[in-house]
Write a structure and sequence with these properties.
The chain has helices at residues 12-34, 58-72, 84-91, 148-161, 175-182, and strands at residues 76-81, 98-104, 116-118, 136-141, 162-171, 185-186, 201-205. The protein is of the alpha/beta class and 212 residues long. It has a 7-stranded mixed sheet with strand order 3-2-1-4-5-7-6, sandwiched between helices. Strand 1, helix 3 (84-91) and strand 2 form a beta-alpha-beta unit.
């Protein structure tokens, strides 16, 4: 008796579908390589809606990154808390005189090496020892959920990290809570996402910014 008789065989249809899938995958990978794939481009790591991830449009990410660099000043330090698309846009600005790190729950962003810091807003001060208090010129934060509890806990992280300047991105419905917890005011600038969200989003700052 042939031992292969006990091994389940794939139908020719399933086999063809699998081959097609792998071929498409190879083509995508090949395209990334041939186009000089930019690991920092928005969308290089896809949104995970289960983690409440919604990336900014390219224009919005650029505007927020530019604002962060101006606010941080020459040689400034920028922290992106749950705002990976702003971090990615900042990293595209080669040669600029600033440093940046990304605090993020999604470990896929660990591909960015030492600048990635695992962050869970449920444990707002569970941070590495080398992340010293008040060591960032500006903190950009986009709490993953539109709830006061999430904002309150993220606030602890923001206040621990920043020397003073805060740029918060969250829903328009959070205006009162943002003012209460962080002393920030709504800007005229309206951030956009690459996919339209049901909730209106706004930016809030506690300093004279270029977003008005």
């Amino acid at each position: 008796m042939d031992d292969d008789d006990d091994i389940p065989q794939l139908s020719s249809h399933t086999l063809a579908a699998l081959q097609e899938f792998y071929l498409e995958q190879q083509q995508r990978e090949g395209m990334k390589t041939s186009q000089g794939f930019n690991q920092y481009s928005i969308g290089s790591i896809e949104e995970d809606w289960q983690l409440s991830q919604f990336w900014y449009s390219d224009e919005t990410a650029s505007c927020l990154a530019k604002e962060a660099v101006l606010a941080a000043g020459k040689g400034g330090r920028i922290a992106c808390v749950s705002a990976p698309s702003v971090y990615q846009k900042l990293k595209e600005q080669d040669g600029e005189d600033f440093s940046v790190c990304i605090l993020e729950y999604d470990r896929r962003f660990s591909v960015y090496g030492e600048e990635f810091i695992f962050y869970d807003y449920n444990h707002p001060l569970d941070l590495p020892e080398n992340l010293l208090p008040h060591s960032f010129d500006i903190v950009i934060a986009d709490p993953p959920y539109l709830s006061e509890e999430c904002l309150q806990k993220t606030t602890e992280t923001i206040k621990y990290l920043t020397k003073g300047k805060i740029l918060l991105c969250t829903g328009a419905v959070m205006e009162e809570q943002a003012a209460k917890h962080l002393g920030v005011k709504m800007c005229k600038f309206i951030p956009k996402h690459s996919r339209n969200l049901a909730n209106e989003f706004r930016c809030y700052v506690n300093y004279a910014s270029g977003l008005d």
